[in-house]
C-alpha cells in the first residue's frame, strides 16, 4: 500500500520515525511530506533513511524541479496526517492551502486519516471540535487524541495516539470497508508440467506472474485467497494467501475442485497443459538413434468442469490467443459457461508469458472493455474491478 505521511509542526512529531518504521515493516511504501515548522521537530534525514524515500517539504526541489502535489495524491492509497496541529486542522476544514501537504490533501482521492495532537485546552476548544466535525463530514477519519501527560506538563486529552494504535486504527478501518471482505477467491496460476519420465516433462513458458498479481491484489482487497500454483519460481506472494503448490494438470484439477464449492469467485489464469503423455516412463528414457514417438491424451478441462458445476460462483477464465483473438475468446466464454474472460494476445508487445506487463480485454456476455498496456499489478486491479461489477 502506498502511504503519504504528512507531518506538521507539533512536539508529537518526535514519534513519527517509529511510525514510519512500523509502516515500512508491514510492507507499505511510505513517502513523507513535512511542513516547514515540522522540520523543527524531526529531521528529514531520519525519515528518509527509515522510509527509503526522499522526504518532501516544498513545491520546488533542490534542482528547481516541481514536486507535483496532484501526482503525489494520485499515488497514495492512504494519506495520514500525524500529528495534525490545530493550525493544520483549521486550514483543512476551511479550504486554506499554503503548503505542499495541504495542496496534496486537497487533491486526494484516497482515504485520509488525521491524528490530532495539541495541549488539552486547545483540543477541548469549540473551534477545534468544530473543525474536527467538519473534517469527519468530508469523509476524513479522525484518530482521536488520547489521555496522558502532555508536553506542557499537564495531564489530559490531546496526546497523539501511539504509533501502534495509529497503524491498527488504519488497518481496522480499511479492512472493514474492503470490497472483497468476506469473499473467498480461488485463483489458478502458472504452468503445469506433464511428466514424460522422471527427468523430462511437457510444459509451457508461463511464470504465474499474472495470477500471483491477482492473488496479491485480492488479499489487499480483503478476500480469503486460495492460490493453486503450478511450478513457478516467483517469490512475491503475499503471506496471507493460502498457497496450494501443484505440478501436473491433474494435480491442479484436484486442488481447484476441492476449493471451488466454497468459493465466491474463481479466476483461472493458469496455463494448463491440454495434453499429457499416455504412458509416463518410470525410468529415464535413453537416447536412441531412432525417433521417439509420444502418445498424448487429453487432460481434464478444469475451466469447463467448473463451468458445469458452478452455482452462485463467479467464474472467470483466461484466453491467450495468437489469431482470431476476440472470436476465439467469446467462443470459449460461451462454451465453458463463464461469467467473464480475460483476453490477451501474444501479438501485443509486452503481453503474455514472463513479462511484468500485460494488455487485456475483459469480455462478458454483455460487453467487452479493452485496457492499455499496464504493469501486471495494475492489470490485476482492473480485472478485480470488472469482476466486482458482476457480483450477484
TrEMBL record:
Which pathway or pathways does this protein act in? Cofactor biosynthesis; coenzyme A biosynthesis; CoA from (R)-pantothenate: step 2/5; Cofactor biosynthesis; coenzyme A biosynthesis; CoA from (R)-pantothenate: step 3/5
Which domain of life does the protein's organism represent?
Bacteria
Q: What are the start and end residues of every segment in region (Phosphopantothenate--cysteine ligase)? A: 185-392
Which residues does the UniProt record annotate as the domain Flavoprotein?
1-171
- Please provide the record's keywords in A-Z order: Decarboxylase, Flavoprotein, FMN, Ligase, Lyase, Magnesium, Metal-binding, Multifunctional enzyme
Chain intervals for the UniProt region annotation (Phosphopantothenoylcysteine decarboxylase): 1-184
KW Transmembrane helix (keyword) present: no
Q: Which residues form the DNA/pantothenate metabolism flavoprotein C-terminal domain?
A: 180-389
Give the residue range of the signal peptide.
none
InterPro entries with a match to the protein in the record: CoaB-like_sf, CoaBC, DNA/pantothenate-metab_flavo_C, Flavin_trans-like, Flavoprotein
Give the residues the record marks as binding CTP.
274, 284, 318, 332, 336
Task: Name the family.
Answer: In the C-terminal section; belongs to the PPC synthetase family. In the N-terminal section; belongs to the HFCD (homo-oligomeric flavin containing Cys decarboxylase) superfamily.
- Record's function text: Catalyzes two steps in the biosynthesis of coenzyme A. In the first step cysteine is conjugated to 4'-phosphopantothenate to form 4-phosphopantothenoylcysteine, in the latter compound is decarboxylated to form 4'-phosphopantotheine.
**Database matches in PANTHER family:** HOMO-OLIGOMERIC FLAVIN CONTAINING CYS DECARBOXYLASE FAMILY, PHOSPHOPANTOTHENOYLCYSTEINE DECARBOXYLASE
Name used for this protein in its record: Coenzyme A biosynthesis bifunctional protein CoaBC
Lineage, top ranks? Bacteria, Pseudomonadati, Bacteroidota, Flavobacteriia, Flavobacteriales
